[in-house]
Amino acid sequence: MRSKTKMTIIAAVVLLAAASVWGVLQTGNETQSSSGPASQQAAAASPAPGEVTLLDLGADQCRPCKMMAPILEELKQAYEGRAKIIFIDVWKNREQAEKYGIRAIPTQIFFNEKGEEVRRHTGFMDKKTIIRNLSDMGVKPPEQYRGL
After folding, report:
1. How many C-alpha atoms does 99 have within 13 Å on its Cβ side?
2. How many domains does the chain have?
3. Max Cα–Cα distance, the chain, nearest Å
4. What percent of the chain has pLDDT over 90?
5. Which segments within the chain are labelled E, that is strand?
6. Which is catalytic among the residues 24, 52, 62, 68?
């Protein structure tokens, strides 16, 4: 009896995960013009040559993504001229989810100055961890973040 219950729970979890991935790729049936904000966001999504880039792929309605939004905005301003920090809503830009092989959100991808993927993380990432990852890639943190 326990084995059957375990299998039922495992099957339910697998189905839920599959439905979540499908939802990320299928949500947002609204059409966007090629010059709309979503396509502008996607166009700016490529790693900047000569600049370390953090690409955060999530969604405006995702709880962990919402929790990261103020952190990313703060770091985007603090690291201006040092590193590029970009957020892409994969529900509005499904092609970006496919391009980067996103299976769950949020996903953070760190690119070096050559545009090569160096690190990938799925889930919430706190400010200290982002700063440490950028520092490990040779990006000197702004004064207010040194010693974190």
Report:
1. 15
2. 1
3. 61
4. 62
5. 52-58, 83-89, 107-111, 117-122
6. 62
In a domain, 27, yes or no: no
Mean residue pLDDT across the chain = 81
65 counts as catalytic: yes
Give the helix/strand (H/E) hosting 15: helix 2-26
Domain CATH code at residue 133: 3.40.30.10
52, 55, 57, 65: the catalytic one is 65
List residues bridging with 53 in a β-sheet. Answer: 84, 111
Q: What pTM value is reported for the model?
A: 0.71
Q: Which domain holds residue 62?
A: 37-141
Residue 6 CB-density burial (10 A; 0-12 exposed, 13-18 middle, 19+ buried): exposed
Structural domain includes residue 101 = yes
**11-60 pLDDT, tens per residue?**
554 544 444 544 444 444 333 333 344 444 555 567 878 899 999 999 99
**Mean pLDDT, to the nearest integer, of 56-77?**
97
H helix or E strand, kind and range, residue 16: helix 2-26
Check residue 36 and give its pLDDT: 44
Tokens of 40: 């502008």
